[in-house]
Amino acid sequence: MPGTETGIVDVAIVGSGPAGLSAAAHAAAKGLSHVLLEKTDHLSDTIFKYQKGKHVMATPAHLVLRSDLDFDAGKREAILETWDRQIAENKVEVMLDAEVSSITGHAGDFTLTLKRGVTVRAKAVILAIGTQGNPNLVRCPVTQGTIVQYQLDDPGEYVDEHITVIGAGDAGIENAMGLAADPQQNNTVTIVNRSADFATAKEANVQALLAMESEGRIIVRRETTAASIGDGQIVFDTRDGQVTVPCNRVIARMGSAPPRAFVEGIGAEFEERDGKRVIKAGTGVTFTSADRVAYPVLSPRFESSVPGIYVIGALAGYPLIKHCMNQGYDVIEFLSGNDGLKPADEPILEEKFAGLPGNKSVDEWLELFGRNVIILQELSALQLRELMLDSRARAFGKGEVIFERNAPGSSMFAIAQGSVAVEVNPADPSITVPIEEGSIFGEVGLISGRRRGATIRAAEPTVVLEFSRNAALKLLATAPSAARAVNRISIERQLLQMFGSGLTPSDLAEIIETAVVEDKRAGEVVIAEGDDDKDVFVIRRGSMIVEKDIGGNPVFLSYLPAGSYFGEMAVIDGSRRTATVKAAIKSQVVRFPGEAFVKLLERKPKLREKALADMAGRREVNAFIESRKDSFGDAADYYSQTAKFLVDNGIGEATDVLLIDQTLCVGCDNCEKACADSHDGLSRLDREAGKTYAHLHVPTSCRHCEHPHCMADCPPNAIKRGPDGEVFIDETCIGCGNCQRNCPYGVIRMDAKPPKKPGLLSWLMLGIGPGPGEASYAWRKKKAEQSGKETPKVAIKCDMCSGIEGGPACVRACPTGAAIRVGPEKFLAVSQADRDD
Length: 837
Hints:
837 residues, FAD/NAD(P)-binding domain, 30% helix, transport, single chain
């Protein structure tokens, strides 16, 4: 055995990634007998598998590096050369082609059996094996022979290909940028992100990707998933329906999971159960939860539930290279008896917690946070430390305001100690609803970007954790237990708000326990007319269209926006489904069994009355349609075309849309002029542009979408949501143009703020200035040249005249009443009235 006379080493390190290399180098420096086991024929397989020429980042920049190996940001090749050289110089004992198949024994005498039959004995074992060997696979159908790969070695190998990269974490982004870096390769590169945010990627990577997108070098598809792959093409499920594009190759970089079976089997006892050999409860390495991507339970010294087995690096839930290398150094210090060593991030966390009461240590605060806060209870200690580096811990005295109604904010809060009171009635602050210790608040701002919906005060001395938007989204994306907890709380609050009728959280407990969150692609049927299922649905995000079959044709009945519920009719009266409900756009619904809903109605008479009233209204619509079925040919076609027009033009996801009645419009352009005069001389609408159906015209003007496309990837977070639902851009806009590119309706323009115009009287009496409305480009250019200053361009869009008395100027300026602003639920009524006229 290398470096020993007894055949047993002080420590065996499994895996030679950054964590394992750092541990082995420090073991050599401390004089510990050791062996570094690497299953491949080279060191640092993690970095080795990075694409050629990749720039490796050394983040976080403020974290000190503890290691006997050097590391700084640089090219992959230079870093590997440095580590190979220093490992040799430090006389680290290395065994290559040494894949471990099993680890048995106990602290002080472990036996590691290699696949090639050799055994290694060690007093302690450090697992630094990472997770890259266990990638998450694509789940959609893949035609045989189609190229789907889970690694990119050399981007320069691929020329003249349509390549799709699935996954928008750091690995996916770097692969996509590498494939698109050289224009002479002539690749068409598309990267697919299942959400609107790049929650798990480094900010520098995101900004570089967006820059390449703005230059037209990469296609970025947000809120998109792969539906099928094969035959030289890939089918995407997008927010607005399915799209098919050419595809020669798919590179899937969707993360990876720990090699759980191998790790759990270390130190385990086995027993027979139902004819299978399974791990006996309470033995083996324990994980934080049953989730596939969960991490092992570790002590502050990185020791697992099996004494003598230590876990560091990505397998511990800390994938950044500097973190991994620090852990490698620290674990050797612990094994050497340095129990007083604190983690490298300790000073940072000490500073963050300095203002909290009670004089607790960092470990004590972290233990309290993990114990008390529901969404953190299944996180490992290392995950919790990483989360807190990007978060704030704040203390409030009784009665202190945490945030006020209508304040901007997209962070999420968790109550670590104490409780808060939510002021639900703006006219009477004494009317409050409590939120108890361990729960969260502010999740609406996180999910939708809306302004704060209520003022929240500390009901007693309270400690809260504030997670930035990026930190919260990353938490939800990487910790399934946290995502489930947030889902449960947000569903409960949505149902309480929607049903009202004096319900309490305990009333909804059974429904919440059985609730399932489901994503629905655009056009997907949720309920089919004639079916006999009995589930009830709540629209969490997106919108639904309700149709009824009349003479073989689908007749549009109604539109259901987010916050509506449906499916209760068949549950209450036991009938079959009387209509079809399908997603207007990519949507998310909460499904729960009708049986639980019926029990709730039986316990709550007021809620039953409300449900029966809603059902009666829907029955009336159905009865009206049925009564007209013999003469419904033209009407059915009209309703169906109305529904199609509504969806195709984004009205189905709007909260406010400008319509112009063509029978009343005289083409005076007062609407455009009033818009310009109300907004620094630049109009936010184009009356003539846009689509028309029947006599209703939808000009180019913001729809103020329920979940705005433009909010995605706004670097300064300059796009906000006002108290009335208006989406607006504030003064922090940097003119990057991301919002303009992301808006599918062409309602955002990039333009320089024009010089101040002379007043109306100056124009009327002296001919000075350009006159009412938007100044011509020639006038603006001349004024800019005269000032000698070049004004930078910023994003400009309709803000519903927020803050302007009287409401939207376009509507007030219309002399004939042709211009109106409506929500999508009123669009059909307006169009029907127009038809009846």
